[in-house]
């Protein structure tokens, strides 16, 4: 009889436990708390969406990306590329179709993880900043302001750029190689190994400081302008652009284009300096982009400030914006495509959280 009481008691406790567990699961579901497995899957989907967005957007504008870097680092005493149209024609004539996409494989190998980390980091940073903002303001319904979005975007840009910087560094060197230059690097991994072996680990992070400084306004403004512009359009609905609280793909592309234009214009001089610093220490850089100008000191920089000073002194202030035109033509569709692709892929994969959430 006693054993029956124990069994009955145990069975009753087990039933109660199951009921409590079911109640807890229901509560968590109502509050939007996801199980660990679901959260990990959601993170993976978010990273995939960011990677796809980066690969698609960068491949679409690869020829302009290569021309921009060639314009940034070419010696003013040995001009080969005089503008966007002429530069693209020259590459096509001298290197063929493949020349337009030289370095794109390495670029995608860098941009896919970079974009994945950047978008995911922005989501996490914006969520954390919003949580702190609501606690400090005491307003549980508060939303991110443009300044807070700028901060979240800056955090995301710094994390993503630092994580993938060595690949960006060697991608710049591979990109400036031409048919007439000695092929020192056969690919990304060969370039990484060669730079590390011949120039040391620190060489893989040449130009990192101007990159960090430049990524704050660039990525920060991209996210801040894109999200703020979307919010404004949804709330004000000018010209009837909003349907069912959603913007069309074309409207979102336009928002991304505006964000990309503002961000890249502010940060562009730092991008020029970064590229030039990345060429320092490369023995074949003179024959690739500097012609006979190495003796003129065009590639000898001791640091970011020295690079700014020598560039402006020898070539004028306008040199800080070399390649801006092809970069503008590139950035506008690239940023727009990246944002929209990211959101579309997340919709396809069924990820509930959007960057605007």
From TrEMBL:
Record's subcellular location: Mitochondrion inner membrane
UniProt-listed InterPro entries: MCP, MCP_dom_sf, MCP_transmembrane
Transmembrane segments: none
GO CC terms in record: mitochondrial inner membrane
GO biological process, one term: transmembrane transport
Signal peptide: none
SUPFAM superfamilies: Mitochondrial carrier
Recorded topology in the membrane: Multi-pass membrane protein
UniProt record similarity statement: Belongs to the mitochondrial carrier (TC 2.A.29) family.
Protein name from the UniProt record: Mitochondrial carrier protein
Source organism per UniProt: Musa acuminata subsp. malaccensis
């Amino acid at each position: 009889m006693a054993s029956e009481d124990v069994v009955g008691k145990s069975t009753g406790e087990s039933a109660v436990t199951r009921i409590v567990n079911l109640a807890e699961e229901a509560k968590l579901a109502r509050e939007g708390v996801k199980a660990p497995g679901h959260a990990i899957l959601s993170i993976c989907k978010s990273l995939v969406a960011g990677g796809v967005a980066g690969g698609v957007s960068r491949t679409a504008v690869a020829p302009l990306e290569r021309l921009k870097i060639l314009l940034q680092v070419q010696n003013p005493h040995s001009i080969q590329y005089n503008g966007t149209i002429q530069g693209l024609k020259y590459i096509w004539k001298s290197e063929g179709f493949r020349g337009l996409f030289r370095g794109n494989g390495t670029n995608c190998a860098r941009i896919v993880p970079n974009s994945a980390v950047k978008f995911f980091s922005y989501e996490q940073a914006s969520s954390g900043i919003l949580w702190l903002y609501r606690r400090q303001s005491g307003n549980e319904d508060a939303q991110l302001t443009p300044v807070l979005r700028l901060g979240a975007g800056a955090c995301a840009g710094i994390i993503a750029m630092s994580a993938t910087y060595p690949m960006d560094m060697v991608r710049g060197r591979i990109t400036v190689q031409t048919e007439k230059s000695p092929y020192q690097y056969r690919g990304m991994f060969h370039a990484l190994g060669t730079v590390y072996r011949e120039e040391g680990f620190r060489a893989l992070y040449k130009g990192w400081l101007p990159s960090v400084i430049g990524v704050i306004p660039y990525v920060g403004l991209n996210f801040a302008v894109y999200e703020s512009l979307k919010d404004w359009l949804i709330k004000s609905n000018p010209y009837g652009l909003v349907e069912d609280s959603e913007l069309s793909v074309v409207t979102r592309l336009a928002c991304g284009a505006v964000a990309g234009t503002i961000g890249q214009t502010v940060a562009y001089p730092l991008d020029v300096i970064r590229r030039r610093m990345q060429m320092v220490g490369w023995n074949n850089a003179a024959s690739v982009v500097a012609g006979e100008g190495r003796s003129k000191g065009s590639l000898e920089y001791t640091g970011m400030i020295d690079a700014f000073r020598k560039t402006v002194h020898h070539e004028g202030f306008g040199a800080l914006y070399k390649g801006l035109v092809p970069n503008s033509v590139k950035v506008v569709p690239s940023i727009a495509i990246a944002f929209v692709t990211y959101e579309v892929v997340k919709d396809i994969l069924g990820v509930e959280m959007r960057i605007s959430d």
